[in-house]
Amino acid sequence: MQESILPVLVQLDKQLSRRICARVKHDACCEDILQDVYLKALERLPQLEKADNITSYMLRMADNAVVDYFRKKGKASAEVAVVEDTPAPADQPNDLVSQLSVSFVGQMIDTLPPIYRDALVRTEIEGISQKQLAEELGISYSGLKSRVQRGKEMLRAAILACCDFSFDRYGNIVSCCGSDCT
């Protein structure tokens, strides 16, 4: 591991642990998720070394690992849980999760037409499989897949329309400004 990365990871250990445990509320699972984050960091070492902001990269990995945990467990509260975000150091910009809080995304989802909103919420947040939901709604599997995809596209367009995003060379969001959001 490159010498400049190791001290950053050591400094982030407590911050990552607090961030994960604030959402998971189970010590054993919290430690497992943290271990998974470090394993993913090792697997993605070349990208990590090239990252403009290692702290933001690691915090995003931790947030994604928590969402993956809840998806595997089928918890409906994965995306709507209240998160006590640990602020990033003053000299570093906040990561995507801090900028687009769960309540903001929830408000944006509420602006979608009902058929797209319901399909998106049921499959992405509640964790119901698309096949299962298609059967429940009495529509074809491909029809439901299209609804989910259109809902995601509409949500993405709504978020990008209301905020001014800056991206790094890898396509990661590095800053977000805007007050015109609903």
From TrEMBL:
CDD domains: Sigma70_r4. The keyword DNA-binding applies. Keywords: DNA-binding, Sigma factor, Transcription, Transcription regulation. Residues 14-74 form the RNA polymerase sigma-70 region domain. Residues 106-155 form the RNA polymerase sigma factor 70 region 4 type domain. Signal peptide: none annotated. Transmembrane segments: none annotated. The keyword Protease does not apply. It comes from the Bacteria. Belongs to the sigma-70 factor family. ECF subfamily. This is Sigma-70 family RNA polymerase sigma factor. It comes from Chitinophaga pollutisoli. The lineage of its organism: Bacteria, Pseudomonadati, Bacteroidota, Chitinophagia, Chitinophagales.
